[in-house]
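tool_call predict_complex ligand=5-hydroxymethyl-3,4-dihydroxypiperidine
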Amino acid sequence: MSETVDAARFPEGFIWGASTASYQIEGAVDEDGRAPSIWDTFSHTPGKVERGETGDTACDHYHRYAQDVGLMKTLGLDAYRFSIAWPRIIPEGTGEVNEPGLDFYDRLTDSLLEAGIEPWPCLYHWDLPDALHMAGKGWEDRACADAFADYANTVTARLGDRAKTWLTFNEPNVFSIFGYLIGYHAPGVSDHETFLDAVHTVNLAHGKACQVIRSNVPNARIGLAPNMQPVRPATPTIADREAARILDSYWNRAFAEPMVHGRYDPIMTKRLGDRIKPGDMETIRQPLDWFGVNYYSPLYAKAARNSTGMKMADPPLGADISLMGWHADPPSFTDALLDVSKRYPGLPIYITENGTADALPAGERDQNRIDYYTGHLNALLNAVDKGADVRGYLIWSLMDNFEWALGYRTRFGVIRCDFDTLERTPKASHDWLQALIAQSREPRVEEPPVSEFPASDIPDAAPADSEPD
Ligand code: IFM
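tool_result ok
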């Protein structure tokens, strides 16, 4: 591929970072008082994850975090987004706090700061304490929003003196759709009404957690990381266009609209019905300091005779499809960023996830990832040129990790993790990104246009009479 990224085009002070998630990298699932999350139970249920793989060990980051922070420093990162495992902090979901769990994130935060990397903790990246789910007190239950706020209080009271950039949720749309509507992810529920319950509880939990963060963390910068993917109809029929509108509501609007504007769109308002109680929208809408965008691909929608009226469709024939089955389409990234800018003006945007998967053997060059990043960073810069206020880019992901229902087959890291030896090896994409980050920080020299120089100032300009005969 001949396309390159012009490092000088990144805005001054642009933040480079990486994102990960607790269950995907930590391992140590039964150490120091951690209790099972819904993902422990789900991954240990036969048939739920490919090859029966689990996050029991994952990248063993729990024990190797210091080495990983060293790798982040070498890569040149400004920021690191990690998630906190709720069942390490409050193992049963409510009640007793587990101090050793807090100590782990304390050590991680300190070691990041020591390395000059800003910690960006995310309170929820999908590992709900299983005890809550088993008791029917998970996201389907309104009271879970209060349990989440208590958990947020415990965590921010401990880390808030050092960590200033906080996220409430990672991809609330993805875990509610895949976990409660389709049942492909934990906790494996597939029920439209339960999904709708979960949507509203998660929104309430976000609002309550924002209030807690604001009061516990001086100078907090609060955001979240929804997955924003433009939705296209699979065909131009009226039915598929309507399906695209519904999927757009479920995927892109169900959380961002109430969180930023304090209202659901008409589709969600109607379907949520009397789940919305007086005062709820005020609770949900709390001031945010920035908006995160996790982006991978556009989505395609098709009309369906099911409870939602739509289903996800395959990308069009001939599209550039990744190992995940996703359409790699950089212009759609520009579209997504411009759409977010228009809908949520005034909120600086950070890309909180972007990347692609491979299944390459050790030592093989991950050119596909370099190409993906090249295309998507150029798409980001195009959005900036068109007015999007994008301030940073956090890759998904730092290292290969547990990719949920796909287990360890698909690798998203710029650092390879050997899941037998747990050895970390930087890939070609790591070196490429490291060089780009370094170049983007080089001092900018503004060269005046040539026409501004009077001819006599050009030192080696040959005198008119010195022309050869
Ligand atoms: O691995 C996931 C991550 O947990 C959430 N966003 C998408 C990534 C790739 O599928």
